[in-house]
Write a structure and sequence with these properties.
The chain has helices spanning 5-10, 41-52, 92-101, 149-155, 178-184, 189-195, 206-220, 265-273, 315-318, 329-337, 355-358, 394-401, 405-419, 452-457, 480-496, and strands spanning 31-37, 57-60, 71-72, 81-83, 105-107, 115-119, 122-125, 257-259, 278-279, 284-289, 294-298, 303-311, 322-324, 339-341, 343-350, 363-366, 372-376, 386-393, 427-434, 445-447, 467-469. The chain has 499 residues and is of the alpha/beta class.
Length: 499
């Protein structure tokens, strides 16, 4: 069942109907109506809806913590969010859950100070970029900041009118690499090179990235147009196309928001609502289905008999679980080949504003392994300290994450001091995190490669016998935390129709 745009716009979560459904009696601990594999937001939302409907649900989590990619580093002075960093203004299901659980939110100031660019060995002030000799792009490309070049060029080629359009047959021809699409549309080689700094545009489906950009444009309609730019991803948000009249919805002030105590308070609160168990350190090894039910077996010998199973783990993890009967060709292709990409971040403090000495923008976008440094405004008129984040995606992230944590941090500091000598001794890294090094994620998120949307995106979310599929990678309309909640809601509806 798809969620209509009307209900999405109204912010009505369909999970609210679950408590009205007739319940059933709980069973013994080694049996369940449903076993959910994975205790991230998608799995927990599935379990929550089914639990409120009266069904017996057991959640199995392979690690020693629940929350998946919702991870708040509350042990660190600055309390950084390692994943699920903020609640967007159009996160209808997340906001509904926050309200139902009585969680307290606050406005989080993530204003990023202006960027400078380090390209081909030269530090370039943002105001000089358009006419700088190192800017080898052409025509209108020259005025686009390097940080936004790839997303802005792609957004200009995005033909969507609706959130579901990325799956529409008339746009199937766009399931090609971003590089191929750019070449076809006359994008300069220099612009393509810059666009590739944070992602391999030859290995990403243009259609998939268009979906994200269009979803970002949709969410922008809810922003307060007079508010300062405070969302980190707003730097990558597409601008309206030339001459396009973007209809804006009711503006919501004081955004983005987060949850007091950290975003992890959301999965924690959901777990607290569940009657059934959420078992950690239960690494699932096999799912065996028959005509009457399914057996879910863990490496430690735990076995649970159930009616249905929900996979709420990334396909990069599911591909290591033995599934019987073996999935059909579409599911096998998706599970085995869906791509995953890395994001590596280091969160730190800047003791004194070193940019006052070299006269360039505090934040950095580079063509080096450092990739990006985001400096967050402390609104103290040039007084320290400032929060900062080293942000690496794509190839830079893979290269840095190949190092051990201490080596990676030393490398980032050394690169920054080489590029900005005035930063020497002024930056301290408090927390380093690589999603590729998390064995049950192996990347921060999925990414369709060219051709994969046409090959399996439409049907990979269909149940395979008694196995259902949730997770951010099965989204239809959303992204981030909202996508995880969306997928959990969809799967719960599928199961409510079968139980």
């Amino acid at each position: 069942m798809r969620v209509s745009r009307r209900r999405f716009n109204q912010g009505i979560a369909l999970s609210t109907v679950a408590p009205l459904l007739k319940g059933v009696k709980a069973r013994a601990a080694d049996t369940a109506d449903v076993v959910v594999v994975g205790a991230g937001l998608s799995g927990l939302n599935t379990a929550w809806i089914l639990d409120e409907a009266g069904y017996n649900v057991t959640v199995l989590e392979g690690t020693n913590r629940f929350g998946g990619r919702v991870w708040s580093a509350t042990e660190v002075e600055t309390k950084p969010e390692l994943g699920a960093s903020q609640i967007g203004p159009a996160y209808a299901r997340v906001l509904d859950a926050v309200d139902r659980l009585g969680l307290e939110t606050y406005v989080e100031d993530r204003s990023i100070l202006p960027f400078s660019y380090y390209m081909n060995g030269q530090l370039i002030n943002a105001k000089d970029w358009a006419d700088h000799p190192e800017n080898k792009t052409r025509g209108r490309e020259r005025a686009i900041p390097p940080l936004r070049l790839g997303s802005q060029l792609l957004s200009q080629l995005t033909p969507f009118k609706d959130l579901e359009d990325w799956l529409a047959p008339q746009f199937a021809n766009l399931d090609v690499s971003i590089a191929d699409l750019f070449t076809k549309n006359g994008v300069s080689p220099a612009a393509m090179k810059i666009a590739s700094l944070g992602q391999d545009i030859g290995d990403f489906s243009a259609l998939a990235m268009m979906q994200e950009l269009y979803r970002g444009t949709y969410e922008a309609k809810f922003d307060d147009s007079n508010a300062p730019s405070s969302m980190p991803m707003r730097a990558n948000r597409p601008e309206p196309k030339q001459g396009e009249n973007v209809e804006r919805g009711p503006q919501i002030k004081n955004w983005p928001k987060n949850i007091k105590g950290g975003t992890w308070e959301l999965p924690k609160a959901i777990v607290g609502k569940l009657r059934g168990p959420v078992l950690t350190n239960k690494l699932v090894a096999a799912i065996d289905m028959d005509a009457d039910g399914a057996d879910v077996s863990c490496l430690d010998g735990t076995k649970i008999r159930c009616k249905y199973v929900v996979s709420a783990v990334p396909f990069s993890t599911l591909r290591n679980i033995a599934i019987s009967p073996f999935p059909d060709a579409v599911h096998e292709d998706a599970i085995d080949h869906l791509g995953y990409v890395e994001t590596t971040r280091a969160f730190g403090l800047i003791k004194q504003p070193f940019w006052q000495d070299d006269g360039n923008g505090p934040s950095l976008f580079t063509d080096t392994g450092l990739h990006m440094l985001w400096v967050l405004d402390n609104h103290k008129n040039g007084e320290g300290p400032y929060r900062c984040m080293f942000v690496m995606t794509g190839k830079p992230a893979e290269q840095v994450s190949s190092l051990e944590a201490e080596q990676a941090q030393a490398y980032l500091i050394a690169q920054l001091e080489r590029i900005r000598p005035a930063s020497k001794g002024q930056v301290e890294i408090l927390k380093y995190h690589s999603w590729r090094r998390q064995p049950l994620q192996r990347g921060c998120r999925h990414m369709f490669r060219p051709g994969q949307i046409n090959a399996f995106a439409h049907h990979m979310i269909d149940p395979w016998q008694r196995l259902h599929f949730a997770g951010e990678h099965t989204r239809r309309l959303d992204y981030g935390m909202e996508a995880a909640m969306e997928s959990g809601e969809r799967v719960a509806q599928e199961l409510l129709a079968r139980l």
